[in-house]
Amino acid sequence: MMIRHEPFMEEALKEAHAAALEGEVPVGAVLVKDGQIIARGHNTRERDQDPLGHAEINVIRQGCALLHSWRLTGCTLYVTLEPCPMCAGAILNARLDRVVYGASDPAAGCVGSKIHLFDLDFNCRPLVTTGILADQCAQVLRDFFAVRRD
Fold this sequence. Notes:
Layout: H1 6-21, E1 28-33, E2 36-42, H2 45-48, H3 55-67, E3 75-81, H4 85-94, E4 98-103, E5 127-130, H5 134-149
Parallel strand pairs: 3-4, 4-5
Antiparallel strand pairs: 1-2, 1-3
Helix pairs in contact: 1-5, 3-4
């Protein structure tokens, strides 16, 4: 069965745009189980003054609360930017089945750019799909930082 990733990444992009409107670095994410979005979120580091307020962490927390389990097996995380080392570690610990991301992050990405953390010998190895709506995901970041520099 062919999975259509674009509709879910479009939803993650909506979250990224919401983050930008709040003055947050525009990264958005959604968590999908059985073809349905069960959690959605974006960066909240500035609002909460919390370094853990990444989109992926926020969505993982929501999903765990909803499913009453720290294990998110059977779930796919869609995120607009390649996960950092903290988020990649959280993905492993949550036992996510798959990660789909849009834009690569050469500065801090740990799912292919700096390192591919999921290739190491952990007890969980999520499948990874990259580059879904990559141009749109990268553009929201470029636009945000262009405005910040002005």
